Amino acid sequence: MTTSSNTPQPTDTTDPFTPPSADEARARRAPESLFRIAERHAATDGQRRRQTHPHVLGPHEAIRLVSFLLSGAALLDDGEEEVDRADITAALTLIPLARGEMDELEVGLLEMARGRGMTWPEIAFGLGLQTPQAARQRYERLAGRTERTDSQDLSG
């Protein structure tokens, strides 16, 4: 299938000569990734206490949990299975979701900062950027990436 758009097109999974879409495969894998990590490493009260939010396992928390277990910053409970390659793949699968959540949070915070009268120099300072222009460009890039339809024009 040929298209002039950069938007990933669905692939025909029955055609053995068409490679699968990595984006589609990751999207299908994401819920199973969260479930796998929760089932294997956040099933008991003790395991959930290792998390920032013990009763909710979101993408960021799942990635952090697998990373902490791999690094030794969190210890396995008695009888808990070791982190395996599938757990690592599940955590990697969730990276784009977690990044998207952080991008949305940052865009929202930048919009609220501007709405409260903060200047681009103040925002640049808060973000650790060298120039107001860099802060404004960061906002524009993130707003475009998150495709927020309700974003205000904050370039002023």
Protein architecture, described:
- By secondary structure, this protein is an all-alpha fold.
- Helix content is 58%, strand content 0%.
- It has 6 helices and no strands.
- It has helices at 22-41, 45-48, 59-71, 85-115, 120-127, 132-146.
Question: Which SSEs are present, and which pair or pack?
Answer:
Blueprint: H1 22-41, H2 45-48, H3 59-71, H4 85-115, H5 120-127, H6 132-146
Helix pairs in contact: 1-3, 1-4, 3-4, 4-6, 5-6
Short description:
The protein is an all-alpha fold and 156 residues long.
Radius of gyration: 20 Å
Largest sheet: none
* Counted beta strands: 0
Unreliable stretches? 1-8
The number of distinct helices, counting runs of at least 4 residues, comes to: 6
Percentage of helical residues? Answer: 55-70%
Keyword list:
disordered N terminus, 156 residues, 6 helices, mainly alpha
